[in-house]
Write a structure and sequence with these properties.
319 residues; alpha/beta; 7-stranded mixed beta sheet; 5-stranded mixed beta sheet; 12 helices; 39% helix
């Protein structure tokens, strides 16, 4: 088992990439002192202010600066504190970074990495706890990955920095300090993976809920196939369809709200390809369609819990 936590693995990888490639630079708020969750801790002392650059509190501006640096030959890694702040950077990310390669007829690329953290459960309130994956998935030209383990944090960051196109790494806050391994930890971050085989039900999850689901499956002792949805966009439901073809049933678990979100897009893709394999309606467990509460008791009720996952598994299998 890895001794590194998820964030340690990412930080060490970023340092290695910066040592090996002088074009790799870091931008973001407070990155010289480690950033909000420690991704850039100690990097300023080693690489200095030219490569670890603090920015004003203006996501629109520093994502734009990152795009300009990428076009000029650098490989910027932007530490965007919370994925909620994608709303502020959206024009630069959606209308510039994602489209420049296409609009230039392939003459220009934007090798930009945007690292951000999402998810509720830490009492950060409605403006710092959302999951906006479905929003990102609406933008062709962006690659979006969601690693769950330290090994995949390392592989994802390496692949993203080396990629000629903009890559968003969206990390569930609950896995940042987690250690441990899963099957397929040496695979590609741009492919989803089966982390547990089964015959009765296909269950798709990522981040915190992947581990919650695995615990529930172990407790129930049922034959459930669990898929870690690492690649979020461009969405590829192939591995999910292969699983549903075998099990005949699908449960999607994700902390984003259902309407317009990841779960709805997965369900549509699977219905289109595996309708005749389904023995029951596709079920999804999602956060309620409400801003994330700040009060601890209300936030706990808001979260997708192990009990909600358990109930959905049992209902789907018996359908």
């Amino acid at each position: 088992m890895s001794e590194e936590s998820f964030i340690q693995a990412a930080r060490n990888t970023l340092a290695e990439m910066m040592r090996n490639d002088p074009s790799v630079v870091v931008l973001g708020e407070d990155v010289s002192s480690g950033g909000p969750f420690g991704l850039t801790k100690n990097l300023f002392e080693e690489f200095g202010a030219q490569r670890v650059r603090n920015t004003p509190i203006s996501e629109l501006s520093f994502v734009g600066v990152g795009i300009g640096m990428a076009l000029g030959g650098s490989k910027p890694v932007i530490d965007l504190m919370f994925d909620d702040f994608l709303t502020l950077a959206s024009d630069q990310l959606f209308n510039q970074a994602a489209k420049i390669h296409f609009m230039s007829g392939g003459r220009y690329s934007v090798p930009l990495v945007l690292w951000t953290v999402a998810g509720a459960g830490s009492r950060w309130g409605a403006q710092h706890s959302q999951h906006l994956v479905g929003w990102l998935m609406q933008v062709p030209g962006l690659k979006v990955v969601a690693p769950s383990t330290p090994a995949m944090a390392r592989i994802s960051l390496c692949a993203a920095i080396d990629d000629p196109d903009p890559v968003v790494i969206i990390v569930d806050r609950a896995v940042l300090y987690r250690k441990g391994e899963l099957p397929g930890d040496n695979g590609s971050p741009f492919l989803s993976r089966v982390v547990r085989s089964g015959e009765q039900l296909s269950l798709v999850a990522s981040g915190r809920l992947l581990f919650e689901a695995l615990e529930v499956v172990d407790e129930l002792g049922l034959s459930i196939e669990v898929i870690d949805l690492q690649r979020l966009s461009p969405l590829d439901v192939g591995i999910i369809c292969d699983s549903v073809h075998k099990t005949g049933k699908l449960l999607i678990v994700h902390e984003e709200v259902e309407i317009g979100g990841l779960s709805a897009l997965i369900a549509k893709g699977v219905y289109d390809r595996e309708y005749w394999s389904l023995d029951a309606p596709i079920v999804s467990v999602n956060a309620p369609s409400t801003p994330v509460p700040a009060a601890p008791t209300l936030e706990d009720a808001y979260l997708v819990s192990k009990q909600k996952i358990r109930n959905a598994i049992l209902a789907t299998i018996s359908a």
